[in-house]
Write a structure and sequence with these properties.
- Keywords: Hydrolase, Magnesium, Metal-binding.
- Belongs to the Nudix hydrolase family.
- Residues 4-136 form the Nudix hydrolase domain.
- InterPro entries: 8ODP (IPR003563), NUDIX_hydrolase-like_dom_sf (IPR015797), NUDIX_hydrolase_dom (IPR000086).
- This protein is mainly beta and 159 residues long.
- The chain has one domain: Nucleoside Triphosphate Pyrophosphohydrolase (Alpha-Beta Complex), CATH 3.90.79.
- It has 2 helices and 8 strands.
- The longest helix is centred in the first third of the chain and has 13 residues, at 46-58.
- The protein is globular and about 45 Å long.
- The relative contact order is 0.23.
- The chain binds the ligand Nc1ncnc2c1[nH]c(=O)n2[C@H]1C[C@H](O)[C@@H](COP(=O)(O)OP(=O)(O)OP(=O)(O)O)O1.
- Ligand LR5KHM72 binds at residues 8-10, 27-29, 34, 37-39, 73, 82, 84, 118, 120-121.
Length: 159
């Protein structure tokens, strides 16, 4: 089966011991808490898409960011691989506001609502919270079962 890749972004916003998550009101991942992001559109760089999606979904304007991970998601019997570029938003302006897609809320990092998040988050958030840079791969069967995964630290990530 020939595979195709879809590029997506995910912006992580942390302030000290708190992390900002958004409750997805509609679309893919509806009913889950997640970082802020979406598809990279035609003619856009991954960085531009990260900034646009963060503003659209949370109202925050990214001023400095650092790529921390690339996550690959494959779904059994689905030729589309999701390649999610994860950025730590180091500096931003504005206050979180509810959007059409997301309801933002701060959570203490030791009380992240993993039971209402993607299963894979439980695996890679701890790496992110440690400050590591990494690549990870997840093979899902449906949306609620991970058949296989790998996670490996890296020194550098491509922009
Ligand atoms: N498994 C998993 N864990 C953590 N985060 C994610 C996943 N799968 C994902 O797709 N994501 C992230 C990556 C993106 O940030 C969003 C999905 O974006 P989506 O809502 O599909 O993209 P938009 O461009 O905003 O969508 P529409 O506006 O076209 O509906 O979840």
């Amino acid at each position: 089966m020939a595979t195709t890749r879809k590029l997506l972004t995910l912006a992580m916003v942390r302030q000290g011991e708190n992390i900002l998550l958004g409750f997805k009101k509609k679309g893919f991942g509806q009913g889950k808490w997640n970082g802020f992001g979406g598809k990279v559109e035609m003619g856009e760089t991954i960085c531009q898409a990260t900034i646009r999606e963060l503003e659209e979904e949370s109202g925050l304007i990214a001023k400095a960011m650092d790529k921390v991970a690339i996550l690959e998601f494959e779904f059994l019997n689905d030729p589309v691989i999701l390649e999610v570029h994860v950025y730590d938003i180091v500096k931003y302006e504005g206050e979180p506001i509810e959007s059409d897609e997301m309801v933002p809320q701060w959570f203490p990092v030791n009380d992240i609502p993993y039971e209402k998040m993607w299963l894979d988050d439980l695996i890679w958030y701890p790496e992110y919270l440690k400050g590591s840079k990494f690549k990870a791969y997840f093979l899902y069967e449906g949306f609620d079962k991970i058949l296989k995964h790998s996670i490996s630290p890296v020194q550098e990530l491509p922009l």
